[in-house]
Specification:
Layout (H helix, E strand, L loop, with lengths): L1 H20 L26 E5 L2 E5 L2 H9 L1 H15 L1
Length: 87
C-alpha cells in the first residue's frame, strides 16, 4: 500500500511541476540571450523557460532563474525594453 502512495505523490509532484513551469504566454521570447546573464541561449543546453505572471522568460541556466527571482522587475524591464527596441 505504501508503494502506491509513494507513486501517487510522485505523480502529483510531476503534474504540479509541469503546471508551474510550462509557458502559457502567447508572445514569443524576443531575445536570443539570457535576460539575466546576457549569454547566448543554447550554449549550456536547452534554455530554461519560465512563465512569470503571463510573460515567457528564457534563461541560459537554472542559476539565472534564482537571480531573476530576487529582482524580477529589473529583468522584466530589460525584456520589455528589448521588445520595444525590436518594434
Amino acid at each position: 500500500m505504501m508503494k502506491y502512495f509513494f507513486l501517487f505523490v510522485v505523480f502529483l509532484g510531476t503534474i504540479h511541476a509541469a503546471e508551474t513551469t510550462a509557458p502559457t504566454s502567447t508572445t514569443a521570447y524576443p531575445l536570443n540571450i539570457c535576460v539575466v546573464s546576457g549569454d547566448k541561449l543554447g550554449q549550456m543546453g536547452p534554455p530554461t523557460v519560465v512563465n512569470y505572471k503571463g510573460t515567457e522568460v528564457q534563461f541560459c541556466c537554472k542559476d539565472c532563474v534564482k537571480d531573476f527571482e530576487k529582482d524580477p522587475d529589473k529583468y522584466l524591464k530589460r525584456l520589455h525594453d528589448a521588445e520595444q527596441k525590436a518594434k
